[in-house]
Amino acid sequence: MRQTRLHASHLKHNGKMIEFFGWDMPVEFSGIIPEHTAVRERAGLFDVSHMGEICIKGPGALDFVQYLTPNNAARLGPGKAQYSALTTPKGTFVDDLLVYYQNVDEYLLVVNAANTAKDFKWILSHAEAFDVSVTDVSEEYTQIAVQGPEAQGILSRLTDVKLEELFSFHFAAGRVAGAEALVSRTGYTGEDGFEIYTRIPNPDVIWEALLEEGKSVDCLPIGLGARDTLRLESCLMLYGNDIDDTTTVLEAGLSWVIKFKKGDFLGRDALLKQKEEGVTRRIAGFEIVGRGIARSHYSVFVGGQKVSEVTSGTYSPSLKKSIGLAYFPIGSTSEGTDIQIEIRGKRTDAVVVPTPFYKRES
């Protein structure tokens, strides 16, 4: 299995390691619930170095990114990033991703770990018509996320980046714990926080410095388990579960990333047609009324008829209830709709609820 440059640090801090799409990654350190609570109430530290980074460079870089993604990359400028997607001609997902503006002819795409090779191949297959070079630079980067209400306080004492001036989806180059890095106000938890990209060969100096600086607020290292419960509470999509090449951007409730007026992009015609005709299904959130925890692939019933399967489900440590996401016929997505989830052969009552399930106080 592949290892991130922080692997030794994970073992040092008693990380429980598992295989995750070919990577040896920590699923937890002190336990999913205490780690989840640390991020919601204080701060937590994540190794997300398994994520992929793909560089698009050249005179045609902007035009190419505009063609690959539905969001409007022309709105980006120095120090700005945006959430977007790689879309198929059918308007479905190759992946979701972050797009970083590096300079007028260079963009960095940050993609999901499980999809890096696939995404790189997809991008290359469409590059010939554009004056660009495409490079998989994933091996160069380590990515560390510090998330939670105390994240800014912890990081501010270790960096020369003026974090108070860094807005959401903005980034700046600087130093963290004395090492060169790019600091981005982004994350995958629903909390305020930062993602730190560095190319230094020993990124554990940043990791250990953040943990040491965070001791005063009991900042904890966080594994994949709590990362999943945090993102689901905040209704952040997970590729392979909630979105994939069978679900369109509109069905996934992400219409806000589609900018039809910007011009042509892969999937534009299909998405425009679907918008005009109206989607027939859409993702929605639910919570279990009785006992039991909904898990991925559990059957979902409306009016006694199976309509889909759970895409993501868990017990919410913040809300103290079982929650989940699933695709429903458009007429069954309204708040308060009664549904049932089949858990271990028994249908359990549930109800459609608004999302996100959790939203931090501003």
* Biggest β-sheet strands, sense, barrel: 6 strands, mixed
CATH level 3 topology of the largest domain:
Gyrase A, domain 2
String of helices and strands: HEEHEEHEEEHEEHEEEHEHHEEEEEE
| CA distance, first residue to last residue | 40 Å
Under the CATH scheme, the architecture of the largest domain is: 2-Layer Sandwich
Per CATH, the superfamily of the largest domain is Probable tRNA modification gtpase trme, domain 1
Number of helices: 8
Instruction: Give the percentage of residues in beta strands.
Output: 25-35%
Mean pLDDT, to the nearest integer, reads: 98
Strand order of the largest sheet: 10-11-12-9-3-13
Work out the count of structural domains: 3
Query: How many β-strand runs?
Result: 19
CATH class of the largest domain: Alpha Beta
Spell out the key features of this protein:
Elongation Factor Tu (Ef-tu), domain 3, Gyrase A, domain 2, alpha+beta, Alpha-Beta Plaits, 362 residues, globular, 19% helix, six-stranded mixed sheet, 34% strand
